[in-house]
Records
---
Amino acid sequence: MDLKECVQITDSTLIQLSIHCPRLQVLSLSHCELITDDGIRHLGNGACAHDQLEVIELDNCPLITDASLEHLKSCHSLERIELYDCQQISRAGIKRLRTHLPNIKVHAYFAPVTPPPSVGGSRQRFCRCCIIL
């Protein structure tokens, strides 16, 4: 089910999916900026989660935290999770998920650490990946 960029998707939607879609295998929620850990909790406890859900895409979901990964630990069929631009997801959270699902493919991106302002330098750098023009 592709719900990518459906900006009206909320936790209530995920509750309904968890109840009424027991054979859901692939779910894209990328850019659904209103969903939270609570919605993922319902999805992780739903009928599809334990035996059916293979792929979940959560790219650019700013309210998702490591708690969501905890809720997905019981999804034994989960093969892949997308977490690009989820600013509240940590490497430690992904590591904990992998202890329960060792074969899962996790696609995530972590922005480079912003260095401290240079002492006495004339140009301040903002991050290593930015080019100051």
---
Amino acid sequence: MSGNGRALVLGGGGAAGNAWEIGVIAGLIEAGLDVIEADLIIGTSSGSTVAAQITGATKPAELLAGILTAAPSPPTASVGPNGGRVAIGPAANHMEITGAIIAAAKDAADMRRRMGAAALETDAASHSAAQSQWRATVAARLSSQTWPQQRILIPAVDADTGEPVVFDRHSGIDLVDAVAASTSNGFGVPPYRIGDRRYINGGYRRNENADLAAGCARVLVLSPFSGRSRHPLDWGMHLAAQVEELRAGDSRVETIFPDGDANDIFAIGSNQMDPSTRPPAARAGYHQGKALAEQLTEFWRLTV
């Protein structure tokens, strides 16, 4: 990546985070700042869905309109091998399970190994139907299921080893599979299988994965959770550590966090997976994007 490059970083934030980021991008574009023209787009978890959506055939304004007009949908489910329903979505005790794993881990690498092992314990044969349904669900959200020529990076974590991976169009897998892997929380949505490997959420690598933009002159980060992290600060998972690394490498970095009406949606303990949060999150993001476009224009368009 050239030192003159621009990177757009899209953090995870569940269904609400996806909607808020689409709203922000649509608002920025309407106000005259097209951040989709970035040389590099990094999408993590629900941000990976946004990255695939905005570089497909559907324009952000259309994606926004679809969110605002869509009827809320129930959690996705599939029929299991015994005829029962296999739910796909956040496990009811997801925060409790992952919180205990984080508390027991000695560092980030240990946390990833433990998180993968725990997720794999839930990956029973009955989840094969859930995997197929999850792939279909992700595919339905994308207007194009092939990688764009524009450079996109989608992080995930190998559940078997705990090692981070970063998918791009040279990885030899479909875009849909990369997004499905990065959005698998491992609990509720089981580890996503690609070939003989299984993957869990890209946010277990680092929260926003903005460090993958190293070498870019300008980096714009959208973080639904406002850079907050559930991990100990000395692990360096949090956004502030990533921003510090980027700036040490002479990147200029700007961040956008939810404000106003979106604050409550992304508060700790809120259910960002609730489909009813999507319209208000998208509206708040749209108004925020329009309001921020002018002050971000010089930063984004600056030639070095």
---
Amino acid sequence: MVTSHVVTASDRPSAGRAEDRSGPLLAEWLAGRGHTVERVVVPDGEPVAQAVRRAVEAGAELVLTTGGTGVTPRDRTPEVVAPLLCVEIPGIIEQVRAVGAAKGVAGAPLTRGVAGLVEGEHGRTVVITLPGSTGGVRDAIGVLDPLLDHLLDQVRGGDH
């Protein structure tokens, strides 16, 4: 069983002033794949890095963040997560952007997510920072669904 964490980066939901819609979407998808899922909602910025570090320390194999990947002054998820990565996997985010752009989503190219591996006490954790919109999350699920098992197997040392 895969242990996954979903971190929603958003000031309003973390303060109880809005509903988190993208985090539950990711959690439901992962649970449907048989993952054990933990969710947390934190403000944008450094709390995202803290939540990712806690998930890695807890032994999560996969951490998906949602939100904070745009270009507003508070969107800092890529800046706080990128320094944690020991290996980058840029093709994942490139594909998420490409899927959104192909659907005609004008803002898709503005997504600045990062993806890669974070080294922890329990091994390497896959960390992927996704858009905060439900449409962007659905696009990401479409990209990740066919490759997630292979990705996690590779991180565990599986054969090509």
---
Amino acid sequence: MALLTDAAPVEQGFDVDKLSYEIFSILEAKFLFGYDDPKLFLDDGSTIPTPTPAGKLNPGKKTAGKVRILSIDAGGPTDGLLAAKALALLEDSLRKSSGVQDACIADFFDLAAGSGTGGVLAALLFTKGDDGRGRPLFSAAEALKFLAENRLEISRPKLVRRLFRRRRASVDRVVGKVFSAEQTLKDTLKPLLVPCYDLATGGAFVFSRADALETDGFDFKMREVCLATSADPATVGSVAMRSVDGQTRIAAVGGGIAMSNPTAAAITHVLNNKQEFPFARGVGDLMVVSLGNGDSTPCGIMTPAPRDFIRIAGEGVSDMVDQSVSMAFGNRWSSNYVRIQGNGFGNGKSPVQEASTRQMLEAAEEMLKQKNVESLLFHGKKISEKTNMEKLNWFAGELVKEEERRKGSIYPTVVLKQATPRSSSATISSCSSSH
């Protein structure tokens, strides 16, 4: 997609939502999968918000709240610590803005997508705890601590293929501390998407709560979902796994290979899933925060190692998805889409291999103080006016406002499927707020 670097005025009457639709059609064709009917981007194929002669958007036929999406990139040079720090900051800000001292990330989002280490974070924050209160396993602060203590086992295995079995046993032990042997995708509080790459079919595979509630053939144990999305192909090869009923088998490698930035997949899932998100007609009906995990310093060498190519490809695809999503949001990018990313960590040749966890946490803290380069529709790119930290604090306020707006809405923004315990059948319950 060509980037327009010169500012150009938007013609009066220009339909930004139609442009957004075209951009997501391209994303669907190039990066996504499993969604075959592009008409499902709209509620009935025609009723999308359109500009009035004055240039303002007509909201269309229906009024409901905005669907709130959390997307977390694969580990990147910070091994997921940038996203984990951002989530801890966001949760703290949500508690202050809402006045609810035990508020958690899952209370204020309707769907989470995470790839690689980001998938592990999403699983920690959106899987039900075993206390019967309907609360998540971890708070964001607890997830940050868990990742900091276990990042080497999850993200940085030794580069020796013969250690594969010990590597898998190590990861199994780490996730086994958190997820019971019985917990599956059905045991998540909200819709969850976690990608990997299936060598058996030669394509991306997304672990999805919505699919798991339809049939046990797409339900997988949470500890295996975490193992699959974080599997490093340079060191462990593929992870053979099967669904809870044994009918679906995959040979998984990490989500960073298939989809290092799952934001586009999350958006497409919402816009196509009319059963759970009945009034999500276009980007104007979404609120999205996308958390990156840092871009490393350029390697500066002409013959990168195979592992470097994996990193370069992952960071390149992540940035491309961010640019495409920014373009799709058009003139709503500043209010409906927030991207948190950091730059310039490591020496380029071995960005974080020798860095201690303390050094990486300090680097993540500094990245939150950075101002990022942002892609703007018809205006090329510019430096953000806000730091990552300021954007997170602002977005927390918007999430709380959305929660309050839903209390007065007659339309359910989200109609979540609910699983019958240990059954493949699913029932439907309507909710107009996230609680």
